[in-house]
Specification:
alpha/beta, about 350 residues, globular, 10 helices, 2 domains, four-stranded antiparallel sheet, seven-stranded mixed sheet
Amino acid sequence: MEDWRSNIRSIAPYVPGEQPKDRDIIKLNTNESPYPPSPMVKKALRDLDTDTLRLYPDFVCSKLKRLLAEQCRGEEDEVFLGNGSDEVLALSFMTFFNSKKPVLFPDITYSFYDVWCSLFGIDYKRVPLGDDFRIKKEDYFGENGGIVIANPNAPTAIYMENGDIEDIINKNSSSIIIVDEAYIDFGGQSIAPLIHKYDNLVVVRTYSKSRDLAGIRLGYAFASRPLIRALEAVKNSFNSYTVSTASRLAAEAAAEDTDYFEMCRKKIIKTRENTVRELEELGFETLPSSANFIFTTHKDIRAEELFNYLKENKIYVRYFKKPRIDNYLRITIGTEEQMRALLDAVRRYLR
């Protein structure tokens, strides 16, 4: 007789970075912004008419889509919204990856990709990065059921030139190409405007990093109108109201405050460069970063030991016990003060 236990789906889930409750901890492990949201966001939430919360949220979100469409020089019907970029990506996998051929993505990249493939029964293949941890475009010129590229990549922080991605798109006119641009605002140039040139391109973005709003869970995608309609149909088969009223208002305000966005973005980039330079003086080798984090190693230090030492000293960074990268630490860029504390702790460890 069949037992109900045998019908429960078993899957190895994505493991997020720790979220400690202690306010004294310097949290550099989940690539959040070290800066608070725009003052315009705070005002929008203060002015929120709580009586409206008894109603379902805006189904269309036209204003927000119009504001976001400016990033791809497009129209609101070329924008898709979701409850964080993770949901947008998951729905994209479900919508576009239904071939019997494997989906391709790097062997070292955002570790949610293979989780979604396993969850949705999608065949996939991890393509090895080069010895320099860069994506080799030629490896993606063969037959496939779709391609996913995080640009800049995670956890390496390395940016791939748009010309190389465009070469991949041109070689794969029969496949959907998803470019995950969670960190693009910290280096490089977005490929989003090319959705008007390639109808098989999907570009996914998030409010969690450069917009200082990880807590509102707002993600979005740019794509041609047919692809957006397909995404909407799948989303509405699960949940038509994915963006809450408060999240929409916060997202609109953040999109309008471009000066604050630029100020925070530039501060993070400057702090990143200062941190890399000081780590190099201490003997670390850091991969070239175009993100709001760095990926660094030291030939004389075990990364796991340094990770544990920093944690004991209330500084959280990220360590991945995986082949090829198990002697690297991923360190989110915090404020100047937080990064000074990190560097001081590293110096104490080295002594």
